[in-house]
Design a protein that fits this description.
Elements (H helix, E strand, L loop, with lengths): L4 E6 L2 H6 L3 E5 L3 H11 L6 H7 L1 E4 L2 E2 L15 E5 L6
Parallel strand pairs: 1-5
Antiparallel strand pairs: 1-2, 3-4, 3-5
């Protein structure tokens, strides 16, 4: 683990698109993290499309429509990618 690493959790179709449930990523902002995971998974056909549909949480806080470059990440943070879920 790097001193700047955050833990990324992929859920449901995001897990399938990434080919893994979680990974450690060094990132200072959410924009940095998005760039890095896109680079890491560029050989996965659906990865970017699935991630683009996900709700993102940093810790327990939803990111919503905030600009990723304005969201600071700190070592030990957890970032969750939650695809849309169907059902009731």
């Amino acid at each position: 683990m790097n001193e700047n690493d955050v833990t990324v959790h992929y859920w449901a179709s995001a897990r399938s698109a990434a080919g893994m449930a979680e990974e450690q990523v060094p990132a200072g902002t959410l924009a940095d993290l998005l760039d890095e995971i896109s680079r890491r998974h560029r050989d996965r056909d659906r990865f970017d499309d699935v991630i683009a549909t996900c709700s993102i949480l940093v810790g327990d806080t939803p990111v919503g429509a905030r600009e990723p470059a304005t969201i600071s990440l700190h070592a030990g943070d957890t970032v969750e990618f939650l695809p849309p879920f169907a059902g009731g």
